[in-house]
Design goal:
Elements: E1 2-3, H1 8-19, E2 23-28, H2 31-43, E3 47-52, H3 58-68, E4 73-76, H4 91-119, E5 122-126, H5 140-160, E6 165-169
Parallel strand pairs: 1-2, 1-4, 2-3, 4-5, 5-6
Helix pairs in contact: 3-4, 4-5
Amino acid sequence: MVVGAASGIGRASAAGLAAFGAHVVCADLDSEGAAQTVSSLQKEGGDAKAVSINICDTESIRSGLIDAGPVDILVSTPSINVRKPILDITDDEFDRVVDVNLKGTFRLVRETARGMAERGKGSIIVFSSIRSQVVEPGQGVYAATKSGVVLMLRALAAELGEKGVRANAI
């Protein structure tokens, strides 16, 4: 399952997995974009289906996982950025970036990893950013969320490794 498959890195990840013969569940809040990715993969002979998921809503994730069926590999790409100096970021902007990038990733990983741990296998791949290591002006909140994602995935790997589940941040 590739979350964020409607565009960009998510769409490219879905195409790469399909090219290697995976059945790809293309998940995104943008249902139309996810369906377009599926259509593109199927034109190339890929096996894919679309699922709607909003990573800011746990029930949406749970519903999407039911529609997807058992997930052996999760690739998560969604994130947003507000490019402003920290002193200019509003509370609402801060909350939105944290809700999508950190909490959304947490919700998605938590709900998907449960099934993987029960089955004793799985791989979780979350895209972070160079901003988790190197910051630049106007990227402070985004960088903080991306650093949080990296450390959360390290903790998850330590917690689930002995259950056969890998967790990695790119």
